[in-house]
Amino acid sequence: MNIVAYSEDPEYIKVASSYFSNEKIVAVSTSDTKYADELHLIDKMDEEAIAKYLASLKPDLLITGSTKRDKVIGAYAAGLLKYPILPDVIDISGNKAKRVVYSGMGIAELEFNTPIVVSISKKNVEAKERQTQKKNVNLEEGKVKKIEVKQKGGEGVDLSSAQIIVSVGRGIGSKENIKFADELARAIGGALGGSRPITADLGWLPEDRQIGLSGLKVKPKVYFALGISGQPQHLAGIKDTKIIVAVNTDKNAPIVENADYIVVGDVIKFCQEMVKKVGKK
User: Fold this and answer.
1) In this predicted structure, what is the pLDDT of residue 52?
2) How many C-alpha atoms does 26 have within 13 Å on its Cβ side?
3) Secondary structure (3-state) at 260
4) What is the CA radius of gyration of the chain?
5) In contact, 115 and 60? CB cutoff 8 Å
6) First vs last C-alpha separation in the chain
7) pTM to 2 decimals?
8) Are 8 and 70 in contact (CB under 8 A)?
9) Predicted pLDDT at 6
10) Model pLDDT, residue 103
């Protein structure tokens, strides 16, 4: 079977490799990876050009990550190839795939036939490194041309492996208030994340911090849900958390029913008091 894995984030290629450890994996990315037998290093992030290149490889199974660009390119390639798409898969075993359904309330197991395009979710996996043969690919010039490269501000963070996560929702009140949650996260050695409204809708945090059904699935030891209502889409991303601490002024918020510890109160005061107590130790 001709398996091609594409993502701008090499962690997705590692996940794809773990699903097909005995199959040849051809990876296409702008980033290096040791989890493919062949790595085609492309020179630009032009969606149309990448989709055309992926289609030219004529994969039986095209696996993409779940970043916005990955999904756009996967859909574009599926259109060119006239393949069906199976989105947001959380696990693959042979020709069976699992994906979350009903806004996180259930998991469906599906059988699929090739050829097909599958987008997968990011998660921690063990995968063997491969003897990767690399080649550079100069894609066709597309309609989008790179004028300048600006580094993304802020520090990178890997929420998928974080043991402690401090996560904020609309209840944090404002973008300026997120600094209090950030101070708490730093004080207790945690990582800062957020719900979809905070990341994708309001843009108060980068979208790579988004936790939930349409973002990252995390499984920390402790998850502080600050001002997060607890919609099913968010709960789907934290269902493997060991301990959930919910801080909310609404004692009837859905997150309360899913939390191990509940603090009914102001999230800013909670952050400030926690930072003080941790600082005294």
Assistant:
1) 95
2) 17
3) coil
4) 20
5) yes
6) 57
7) 0.69
8) yes
9) 97
10) 65
